[in-house]
Design goal:
The complex is a heterodimer. By secondary structure, chain A is an all-beta fold. The radius of gyration of chain A is 13 Å and the shape is globular. In chain A, a hairpin with a 2-residue loop joins strand 7 and strand 8. In chain A, strands 2, 5, 6, 10, 11 and 12 form a six-stranded mixed β-sheet that branches. Chain A is 0% helix and 51% strand. In chain B, strands 2, 4, 5, 6, 9, 10 and 11 form a seven-stranded mixed β-sheet that branches. A four-stranded antiparallel β-sheet of chain B has the order 1-3-8-7, with no helix packed on it. Chain B is globular and about 40 Å long. Chain B is mostly beta strands. The N and C termini of chain B lie far apart (37 Å). The chains are: A mainly beta, B mainly beta. At the A-B interface, strand 6 and strand 11 of A face strand 4, strand 5 and strand 9 of B.
Chain lengths: 113, 117
Amino acid sequence: AQTVTQSQPEMSVQEAETVTLSCTYDTSESNYYLFWYKQPPSRQMILVIRQEAYKQQNATENRFSVNFQKAAKSFSLKISDSQLGDTAMYFCAYTGTASKLTFGTGTRLQVTL
Amino acid sequence: DVKVTQSSRYLVKRTGEKVFLECVQDMDHENMFWYRQDPGLGLRLIYFSYDVKMKEKGDIPEGYSVSREKKERFSLILESASTNQTSMYLCASSSRGLAGVGGHEQFFGPGTRLTVL
């Protein structure tokens, strides 16, 4: 079975700084996808960024980028120029041949002034 | 915009009651999912459905059942609610995609915070 591990339960970053959230996963599949989802306080979960395993290039979405290390099974999220609106729970997730997601336990990110 | 709605944001029920949580999506998605979210445990999949009248057990199906009579609606049923089912319940939907392979974004509802007393 696939597992997703987020080893940082909570993190804090000052506004305008850069922060990196860690995620590792375990799988025997060769074709899979990785996601970072964001859940702001009292708001709906939304997709931040997606990475396809067969693509070597790291995905980027504006201030959000990933460092995908396939051999190490690592998938970290970097947030540049952090903003107060980035305060949220961040979940790393994996999906393989099925359409269901396996989530990590989440990292609570607090952006401070 | 994809919209996934859930019937209640907050719900309080008594032990032993039968509880229905409703989820509706308006994007003609084939896949629908029910998760529960607990602090320190992340999201865990309860049940999912690939099509009308089809259902598959997720990782923690015990104590729950589901119903999908129409493509847009997916219901989660707690046959006899217990205090350990107090949690946040999230519904999600996604398209199957051309190849039927995973990787498609899941769109989430706002969640139902259920308290069982």
